[in-house]
Amino acid sequence: MTKRISARLHxxxxxxxxxxxxxxxxxxxxxxSHDYVEIVIILSGHAExxxxxxxxxxxxxxxxxxQGNQEHGFxxxxxxxxxxxxxxxxxxxxxxLEKLKTMPGxxxxxxxxxxxxxxxxxxxxxxxxxxxxxxxxxKVTRLRHxxxxxxxxxxxxxxxxxxxxxxxxSRLYSRSSENSTTGLLRFSEAIAWMEENYVRHSTVMELxxxxxxxxxxxxRMFRKTFGTTPIEHMINLRxxxxxxxxxxxxxxxxxxxxxxxxxDSNYFSRQFRRITGMSPRRYRNISKRT
Length: 290
Description:
- By secondary structure, this protein is α+β, with helices and mostly antiparallel strands.
- The protein has two domains: 3-182, Sandwich (Jelly Rolls), CATH 2.60.120; 197-290, Arc Repressor Mutant, subunit A (Orthogonal Bundle).
- Helix content is 51%, strand content 19%.
- It contains twelve helices and ten strands.
- It has helices at residues 7-10, 97-100, 104-118, 130-149, 154-174, 179-196, 204-210, 215-226, 230-248, 253-259, 265-276, 280-289; strands at residues 3-5, 18-24, 29-34, 37-44, 46-51, 54-59, 62-66, 72-75, 82-88, 126-127.
- Helix 3 crosses helix 6.
- The longest helix is centred in the middle third of the chain and has 21 residues, at 154-174.
- The model has no long low-confidence stretch (mean pLDDT 89).
């Protein structure tokens, strides 16, 4: 039976957003799942990581992300197998997610690879050389020290150190020259472009061209990853940004619609109601009261 681990019970404090463990897993680790994000860094040795009933061979320098609620465990480990787990709760972090999502490497490492594993498909790996692995471990050490020392301001410093690590790994992914990562990285470039250019009215053909794919293959991969079409995804991006503009209180509904890429405020209102369950006006009024 798979063990279910809750962040509320597993983390040192109820308000802690991050925890770091380093293990010597000579005998492997049983199948389990959890409700937090985990960055896995293989420090030495070799093993098989069973994720959603599929085996992946992992070795020193491999870095990958588990987005939570994925059954996984290590088996067939070598005697020198060591792994570092950087675990965090995104809901308690202050990360600039809108900015991170415009990075192709972030999209590949933190969004696309975990999504592909849900379908038990082949997953490309970010594999660090010794110099980059050493740099990442130095970042882990600084983060761990902050979390354990709990000096005044540790929560701010630890968030900054973890964000620094996330950005660093995302950049390394973008610079990866491994043939196995190229296809996924090109796809992630198209997704990141959508995040940054959500106000533009792009066609599927244009997006497929950015991903260096045929339209058919791009649509199939997009739907498998996000469970929707590129156009619907773009509409959701616009509504997400519209919600933030309405919360700020500095724009009326028509201004919000045009600023978020809608050419018709009535169409914007219909889409907003369809996605959020309420009209833009009601959403803004409720937000003012709260």
